[in-house]
Amino acid sequence: MRKIEAYEDAAKIIDQLLEKRRYSWRLKSINWFDFDDVKQKIKSHIFQKWDQRDPSRPIERWLNTIITNQLINEVRNHYKNFARPCLNKCPFNGGGDSCLSCQSGIQCSECLAYLIWEKGKKRAYNVKIPLTIEDHSRELHANEDNFLDIEGISIKLHNEIEKILTIRQFKIYKMLYIDKIDENKIATILKFKTTEKNRKAGYKQIKNLKNKFIELAKKILNEKDII
C-alpha cells in the first residue's frame, strides 16, 4: 500500500468510508440537503483539517473519527432547526406529545413557543434551496442556521405584547411564558381562589388569561413581520 501524504492520495479511501455511512443518514425528509451534500461538506472539512493529522497513525482511524463527529453535528444542527421547542429542555414536556402546561394535556399552540414554531415550521419545511453544497456551501451554511430562531422571535413577541397589556396582565404573562412558573404557584402568588368543586385555585382566571394571551399572540404574529 502506497504511503498517503496528500489529501488527493486519500480521496478513494475517504469516498469508501463515507459511502459506508450512507444508510446511517436518517434525515431523509430534508429533501434539499441529502447525503451527497453531507459527503461534500465532510470532505471539505477533512481537507481543511488535513495538516492536523498524525502521519504515523492509521489514516482510516483518523478519518472515521472526523466522519462520525461531522455526521453527529449535521444531525444535531438540522434537528435543532426543525424540532418542536418542547424537545429543547422544556420543563413542561411530559414525554411523547404530552404537555404539563397546556390545558389539553397535549403539546399544542396553547404554548407560545409551540405557536411560534407552528407558524414558522410550514415555511421552513417548504423552503427549497436550488443549490448544492458542492457549489454553494457558503450560501447553504448561511441559511441552515436561520430557518426559525424561536428564541429571537419570542423576545420580539414578548416586547410587542408588553406594549398592549396592563402592568398586572404582563406580570402574569411573564410568569407563564417567560419565567415558566407552574400555574399552581402563580395562583398562590396572585391569591387566586375557586368556588368550583374539584378545581384548582385560579383555574378559571388563568385559563381565561391564557386564552387572551394566545389570541393576542396569534394576532401579532399574523399582522407583524416577526417570523
Provide the succession of SSEs.
Answer: HHHHHHHHH
User: What would you call the shape?
Assistant: elongated
DSSP strand count: 0
The radius of gyration computed from the alpha-carbon positions, rounded to a whole number of angstroms, is 24 Å
Number of structurally distinct domains: 2
Q: Helix fraction?
A: 55-70%
Helical element count? 9
Classification by helices and strands? mainly alpha
Largest sheet: none
Give the amount of beta strand, in percent. Answer: under 5%
Mean pLDDT: 79
Description:
The protein is mostly helical and about 230 residues long. The protein has two domains: about 1-80, no CATH class; about 90-225, no CATH class. About 55% of the residues lie in helices and about 0% in strands. The protein contains nine helices and no strands. It has helices spanning about 10-20, 35-50, 60-80, 110-125, 135-145, 150-165, 165-180, 185-190, 205-225. The longest helix is centred in the N-terminal third of the chain and has 24 residues, at about 60-80. It is elongated and about 80 Å long. The termini are far apart. Mean pLDDT is about 80; it is low at about 125-145.
